Each structure stands twice: as C-alpha cells, then as structure tokens.
Amino acid sequence: MNLKCAVDRRLRMISACSTIFLALAFTLFTGAAAAQTSGDDPTAAQAKTEEQQIYQTLYLTHATDHDSLNDIQTDLRNMIPRAKIYGVSSENAITVRGTADEIAMAQKLVADLDRPRKVYRLTYTITDSEDGQAKGTRHYTLIVASGEKTLFKEGDRVPIVTGRTSESTGSSNDQVQYLDVGLNIDAFLTTSADALTLHSKVELSSLAAQAAGSGARDPDLHQTVLEGTSALVPGKALVLGSLDTPTASRHEEVEVLAELVR
C-alpha cells in the first residue's frame, strides 16, 4: 500500500514538472516570434515608416518673389525638422513630405505666412522758398508695396566722358557714362503689426554754369541729398527734412504722406 502511494506521488510530480516546462517553452517561443515580427527587423520597421509618410505641394499666392519663398521654406524647415521640404521657385511652390500631422502643420504655417502685402500711396511734397518767401509746391506720388522698393526720377541724363580709346585708323571712341540730373526719390517701405517704417532718399541735383572761356570739360554738378528712416502714421503727413541749395538762398522742405491703398 505504501509502495503504491509513493509511485503515485512520483508520477504526479513528473506530470507537474512536464506541464511547467511546456508552459515556459510556449511563453518563450511566443515572445520571440512577436519580437521578430514587430521590431527586430529594421527593414520592416523602415518600410512601415515609409508607408505612413505622404507628400503635398503647397502653392504660394502672395509671396511671389524669391526672397519670400526662401523665408517661408526656412521657417518650415525649422518648425518641422523631420519633414523633407523642397522649394520650387519656378512654380512658386513648396513640396513637403512627412506624416499627416506634419503636412497639416505645414499647411497652417503657409496660410499664416503667405498673406497679401499691404500697398500704400506715398505723396512727397516739396515746398520751395527763397529768402523766406514761398515760391511753389510740387507733389510726387509713388505706389509702394510693403517690403519692396520704388524709384522715381525726374530730370535729364547728362553724358560724362569717362575715357577715350584710339583706333588704328586714327579715330577715337569716347567712353560715356550718363548721370541722372534733377530729382531722384528712392522709397522702401516695411510694415509690421503696429508700425509703418519708411526709408527715403531724396536727391536734388543741377548743372552748374560753366565759366566763359573754360573750354570743353565735364560739367559741374550741384547736389543735395536727404536720406533717412522714419516711422509713419497712415493719413498723417511727416516732414522728413529740408534741403538748402548751396549756390543760392533757396530752401526746400520735404514732406511725405502715407495712405493705405489695399
């Protein structure tokens, strides 16, 4: 009787050990298979990542110059460093490759940055006076877009001989450079949320009278330049400065008025 009980206990112990061994082997096999299928294969992981990426081309409407395209492209690369971003200047577009969230962020950034530029009408008023008495007023109107430069010229182009070359035939060719004489206005306007800044250069020049008997020579020029940067308030005139003619008792005051066009 005792021998039978001992045999039964030994058989139960062997059965329990076999069960534990089979369970442990199954667990290890299942874990290894899961690891192999989920993450141990770098090629499979890369393929899965590539499948999750999409691309989209974003066309710019208002930022039409090369500098604006580069600025938006740089902002996208800084804000979305993992995405691949390429600018296409010939199409005025930016192509973005990344996840759906990165594409959505790129769309929002472009919508915020690609805004229409404000356009202003700048009216320069030059008031002439001599010996303290007003002689006349001249108005010059320029249309300037924010971030762009506008140039206005009025006067003559005077030839200046800068060199002379001789040929084998005995004749000579003059090298001529032309100077703009009269009134030149350069205007560069920038805008922000609460400021309107204008950089102006107003240049007045005239030919000086040549002395009798001085012979052929390059003309002498009288030139006065007013250049500076000013903060403007739309609809309110601002005096930029005054110009005094060196050869006469003339005084010219320069004033500018900015008005929003669109």
Descriptive report:
By secondary structure, the chain is α+β, with helices and mostly antiparallel strands. The protein folds into two domains: 42-113, K Homology domain, type 1 (Ribosomal Protein S8, Chain: A, domain 1), CATH 3.30.1370.10; 119-209 and 217-260, no CATH class. The protein has helices at 2-38, 42-52, 66-79, 100-113, and strands at residues 54-59, 84-88, 93-98, 119-130, 133-145, 149-166, 172-191, 196-207, 221-232, 238-244, 250-260. The chain has a four-stranded antiparallel sheet with strand order 5-4-11-10, with no helix packed on it. The N and C termini lie far apart (110 Å). The model has no long low-confidence stretch (mean pLDDT 79).
SSE topology sketch:
Blueprint: H1 2-38, H2 42-52, E1 54-59, H3 66-79, E2 84-88, E3 93-98, H4 100-113, E4 119-130, E5 133-145, E6 149-166, E7 172-191, E8 196-207, E9 221-232, E10 238-244, E11 250-260
Antiparallel strand pairs: 1-3, 2-3, 4-5, 4-11, 6-7, 7-8, 8-9, 10-11
